[in-house]
Amino acid sequence: MTPAVFKMPLAAAMAFTTMVALTPQPTPGIKSGAETIAAAAGKAIYFQYPLPSWDPHCLGFGSEWRYCDGTVLRRCAATGAVWLHTAVDIKTAIQPVMAAANGVIIGYIVDPQFRGGVLIRHETTNGIVITQYWHVWPRDGYRVGTAVRKGEVFGDIADMGSRTHFHFAVFTGDYEANAWRGALPPARCEGFPAFPSRFVNATDYVQARLQPEPQKIVHHCRLDPQL
What's the CATH class of domain 10-19+33-207? Predict the structure, then answer.
């Protein structure tokens, strides 16, 4: 459960702008900073779940945005419609959090109530995808511009007392302000797009892109009957 409106801090926004803004054609043979970082991260061909276990919490993709006790977190002022959750919430204790796929950290912000939020940008064979992680503290050395590999531990679950859990979302497309949204209205209101916008069910998305397990090779020995 995350707040629906966030602003990227100036430093993070500047770093991200440096990475993705249109720039003059580079000198032949010289890679830009963004190209270098993307090359280091590698294409995101396969995904994985960011935690070793995946037990759903009280809110799923498209659930009304409420605390587990039913308290509404946001409504549209004009209609009273409850906003809908863009992510899946997962039960967890405080433990390491892994990158869902190869990518680059493009955003980190802190909310006093919901702790840390991280965005990781992935170049897939079908275009750009952004994974959203909330209630997470990044580890030392992980900041905007850091390339990560699938399964690499980059942070830890934040302690939220009895409300400790993990929020994970998948946004299909390159960065825009809405990639931070933890919820969206069921119909456009107050300048926000209608759910789901460019969000998809994160569990379904990852499940469809898990790396296949290697096939086991079984050797059969043929024993010829003795003459």
Answer: mainly beta
* Residues constituting the chain: 227
Q: Cis ω on the peptide bond leading into residue 196 (within 30° of 0)?
A: yes
Q: How far, in Å, are 24, 90, 135, 179, 195 from residue 65 at the CA level?
A: 43, 15, 16, 17, 12
Paired tokens of 116: 């840390």
Please, are residues 156 and 94 in contact by the beta-carbon 8 Å criterion?
A: yes
Interatomic CA distance for residues 160 and 122, integer angstroms: 28
Residue in the block written with tokens 């859990």: 165
H, E, C per residue of 77-105: CCCCCECEECCEEEECCCCEEECCCCEEE
Bridge partners, residue 172, by sequence = 129
Q: What is the pLDDT of residue 127?
A: 97
pLDDT in tens, 67-114: 999 999 999 999 999 999 999 999 999 999 999 999 999 999 999 888
Cα–Cα distance between 225 and 227 in angstroms, integer? Answer: 6
Amino acid occupying residue 4: A
